[in-house]
Specification:
Elements (H helix, E strand, L loop, with lengths): L5 H8 L4 H9 L14 E10 L3 H10 L6 E4 L22 E5 L2 E6 L10 E7 L2 H9 L5 H5 L5 E7 L9 E10 L3 H9 L10 E2 L25 E7 L2 H10 L4 E4 L5 E7 L6 E3 L1
Antiparallel strand pairs: 1-5, 1-10, 1-11, 2-5, 3-4, 3-10, 6-7, 7-9, 8-9, 11-12
């Protein structure tokens, strides 16, 4: 089957269910941004480390739940996380980042040939889970309309270290109309397993961000008249911690290219339920 372009598919994919989306990803037919797709389903970042570092990484997530909301863990050597559905971690995200000794050395659309028997996989809830719900409530999200990767910034907020994993919190930014800020706070607070409520609204300098037009990851988004920048903790915090740990090899999904699961996201104290 010939590969189909992201621009051709994105708008139509908003109506496609999670299982079909994953099949398109698995075939290499879609490699793009997942924000706004699979409404009502949990999207997750995936982090893969050698099993001897799994205990430390698990503790890093436990100590930093706002940035790293842990929603699934594999057994060592298994590419499956059954609690998230019929998913193969090696093939079912649109794009993966490969790190060697802390350096990003490549991106892949699957990691079948890199998989090892000593790998452990962790799934971290993503705020992209809630974007569709925000749009349904009348919140204007220009990032969803554009299909582009969100701007993400390294802040001055220190995380709680565990073993070799540590560093500053990373946040995602969405321009929100001033009249929608209270609505967005209330809505996202009901999804703590997808980062929950914002950590900051307004002046980025307060959390150590110097220039909104120079994100550390993703694409810059201009703040328009009547809007305010709103910042949420991001699971990219975990990817940044991976790079700092300088492991011989580690893997994550690429920013904005999340794993779409079979789990229903429910706004009731962050509970998730597999269909």
């Amino acid at each position: 089957m010939p590969r189909l372009t992201t621009s051709l598919f994105y708008d139509n994919l908003r109506l496609v269910d999670a299982d079909k989306l994953r099949r398109l990803v698995r075939m290499g037919a879609y490699e793009g941004y997942t924000g706004g797709l699979a409404s009502g389903k949990l999207q997750a970042n995936v982090v893969i480390v050698p099993s001897r570092f799994a205990g430390d990484f698990h503790q890093f997530c436990v100590r930093n739940p706002k940035a790293c909301p842990l929603v699934g863990v594999s057994r060592a050597g298994s590419p499956l996380i059954p609690t998230l559905g019929n998913i193969d971690i090696r093939t079912d995200a649109p794009q993966y980042n490969i790190y060697r000794h802390g350096e990003l050395t490549g991106r892949r659309t699957d990691i079948i040939d890199l998989w090892r028997d000593d790998f452990a996989a962790f799934a971290l809830g993503s705020l992209l889970t809630v974007e569709a719900a925000m749009v349904e409530k009348g919140v204007a999200l220009r990032s969803v309309a554009s299909g582009k990767a969100l701007p993400k910034f390294r802040t001055g907020i220190e995380t709680c270290r565990a073993g070799p994993f540590g560093g500053e919190m990373v946040v995602s930014m969405r321009p929100i109309r001033c009249c929608d800020v209270d609505k967005v706070r209330a809505l996202t607070a009901r999804f703590p397993d997808a980062h929950g409520s914002p950590i900051h609204v307004g002046d980025p300098a307060i959390i150590g961000i110097e220039d909104l037009m120079a994100p550390d990851w993703g694409e810059a988004v201009e703040i328009m008249e009547g809007e305010v920048p709103v910042f949420w903790a991001s699971s990219l915090t975990a990817q940044d911690a991976l790079a700092r740990a300088e492991l011989a090899i580690s893997i994550s999904v690429s920013p904005g290219h999340m794993l779409i699961t079979d789990v229903n996201a429910r706004a009731d104290a962050g509970a998730f339920k597999v269909c």
